Amino acid sequence: MKHASSIEVQRVSKRYTDDPEVAPALDEVSVSIRSNEFFTLLGPSGCGKTTLLRSIAGFEQVSAGSIHIGGQRVDELPPYKRRVNTVFQSYALFPHMSVAENIAFGLEMQGLARGEIPARVKEMLALVQMEHLARRRPAELSGGQQQRVALARALAPRPDVLLLDEPLSALDLKLRKEMQVELKRVQQEAGITFIFVTHDQEEALTLSDRIAVMASGRILQIGSPSEIYERPKHPFVAHFIGDINFLPGQIRQCPQNGRLFRPDGIPVDIPCAHDGDAPSGRAQLAFRPERSKLVEPGEPHHLRGVIEAVLYVGTATLYQCRLANDLKVMLRESNEGAVSARTPGSSVAVQLPPHACLLMEA
Ligand code: ATP
């Protein structure tokens, strides 16, 4: 099954109301999604993820801009004329039909020749590993099994693009992790483009080839999971994906291979790896808790502080620390089989390797 298609969204805006006081749900959003890509729209509630997905599907008419799928302009076409299908959060299975009948339904609607339907249903059941449950009704299935049926039903008409709107959010954590692996496998086997919506950053990092991080109707950054995590270009992106510390201060100099950052109220110059997009003047230094190194106060260090709280999280221990100028940071140390001897009230010093340090606008 190979029908992958690329998607071009160009300067798409969507307003649900004419009221100029209300910000648009989408504000000049542009994105190119490659064929065969597992592409995720990630962002907090209300940022416009679902609106963008529904605009691609054709359930919403865009107010401005254009959408192309596989080179064809589609933003004026009704949903059924776009080679796109959607898996909804609620599954929306027909309760009175068996698993096989649910999958066959869309094929009958599509007008597939009657003789070809059983083979297609069988192929889809195999794809989601549900052959043994073909005759069951949805009510006789677990949440994860219902999700598989919804996926098979959406893939059966062989869309070029599958849109998935928070499809795993109704599942408990363990099942959700299993279904993440399943989704990725099915996407690779089906060989089509998936556009996946979630507000769960870990899910986005695990599944995606690339992620678009959205806020307030805009895309702030598009990149691979590691680019988004390691090189966030915007404080919101850094903060939304994983834990991060911010220190306000000043960029001191710009030597050839890096920059020096002086945190407010702390007389130390912290070398930062060169980043073409780094601002100058007032800025913030951002670093992930696990990228700093805790050392004893006598050793060379950049920051020093007092541990205020110790949180044991199994593989690691988290320390909430207060720095000299009353700033708080979270630090993380891998446990590596031993329980930490650091206690609240004790002093620590922190080394920040240049590559751990990201410079961002203040
Ligand atoms: P969630 O994660 O909560 O589903 P989302 O990121 O998918 O959020 P959207 O549902 O796209 O966000 O909503 C974007 C904005 O548009 C929100 O401010 C929302 O209130 C508004 N909105 C969405 N649908 C409509 C509608 N049918 N009529 C009016 N406003 C709407």
Automatic annotation (TrEMBL):
Part of the ABC transporter complex PotABCD involved in spermidine/putrescine import. Responsible for energy coupling to the transport system. PROSITE patterns: ABC_TRANSPORTER_1, ABC_TRANSPORTER_2. Belongs to the ABC transporter superfamily. Spermidine/putrescine importer (TC 3.A.1.11.1) family. Its EC number is 7.6.2.11. It comes from the Bacteria. NCBIfam families: potA. SMART domains: AAA. One of its GO terms (cellular component) is ATP-binding cassette (ABC) transporter complex. Residues 7-241 form the ABC transporter domain. PANTHER family: SPERMIDINE/PUTRESCINE IMPORT ATP-BINDING PROTEIN POTA, SPERMIDINE_PUTRESCINE IMPORT ATP-BINDING PROTEIN POTA. The complex is composed of two ATP-binding proteins (PotA), two transmembrane proteins (PotB and PotC) and a solute-binding protein (PotD). Transmembrane segments: none annotated. SUPFAM superfamilies: MOP-like, P-loop containing nucleoside triphosphate hydrolases. The gene is potA. Keywords: ATP-binding, Cell membrane, Membrane, Nucleotide-binding, Translocase, Transport. GO terms for molecular function: ABC-type putrescine transporter activity; ATP binding; ATP hydrolysis activity. This is Spermidine/putrescine import ATP-binding protein PotA. It comes from Metapseudomonas furukawaii.
